[in-house]
């Protein structure tokens, strides 16, 4: 199973459409995970029409998105447990908040956003994965998104453009 992973799209303020390369990734994978900050429900509904979507709301998402998605979830895909959270907060770093949020949960992968900075690291048997942003790079040198393959092993890759 192959999954496209995005976060922090901030549409339509930061972009009117998703980059073509991200749409092509979504079309060739089995599902999409979005780690929050859609900022418009229109993007969510567009993505749900394209593919199976698992997502959470971010700190810039309105009530409609929060009500539809929630802010933290654990999903099972191809036998793996995947935690999804945006990662906002006021204390500590984004990665510290994300680890704390799933400290009492059994997960294989934690997907998060918020920082707009790609992150792809294994720690204590858990993959922590932030795809960065395909539309709002902020302090990152490039835009980015990710793909995760769930087979006998977990393979995760970040694509920069």
From TrEMBL:
Which residue windows are coiled coil? none
Citing just one GO molecular function, the answer is: metal ion binding
EC number(s) from the headed UniProt entry:
3.1.4.-
Q: Which Pfam families does this UniProt record tie to the protein?
A: Metallophos_2
User: What residue ranges are annotated as transmembrane?
Assistant: none
| Named cofactor requirement(s) | a divalent metal cation
Which of the seven top EC classes does this enzyme belong to? hydrolase
Query: Is Metal-binding a UniProt keyword of this protein?
Result: yes
**Which key words tag this protein in UniProt?**
Metal-binding
Any keyword Amino-acid biosynthesis?
no
Q: What sequence ranges are listed for the domain Calcineurin-like phosphoesterase?
A: 1-149
Superkingdom assignment? Bacteria
Stated family: Belongs to the metallophosphoesterase superfamily. YfcE family.
Query: What is the official name of this protein in its record?
Result: Phosphoesterase
This protein's species is Vulcanibacillus modesticaldus
Lineage of origin: Bacteria, Bacillati, Bacillota, Bacilli, Bacillales
């Amino acid at each position: 199973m192959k999954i496209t992973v995005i976060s922090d799209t901030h549409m339509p303020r930061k972009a009117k459409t998703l980059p073509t390369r991200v749409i092509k990734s979504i079309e060739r994978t089995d599902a999409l995970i979005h780690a929050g900050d859609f900022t418009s429900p229109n993007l969510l509904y567009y993505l749900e029409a394209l593919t199976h979507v698992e997502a959470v709301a971010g700190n810039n998402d309105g009530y409609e998105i929060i009500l539809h998605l929630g802010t933290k979830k654990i999903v099972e895909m191809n036998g793996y447990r995947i935690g999804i959270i945006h990662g906002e907060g006021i204390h500590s770093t984004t990665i510290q908040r994300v680890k704390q949020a799933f400290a009492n949960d059994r997960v294989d992968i934690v997907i998060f956003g918020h920082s707009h900075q790609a992150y792809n690291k294994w720690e204590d048997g858990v993959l922590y994965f932030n795809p960065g942003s395909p539309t709002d790079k902020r302090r990152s040198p490039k835009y980015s998104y990710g793909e995760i393959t769930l087979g006998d092993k977990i393979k995760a890759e970040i694509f920069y453009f």
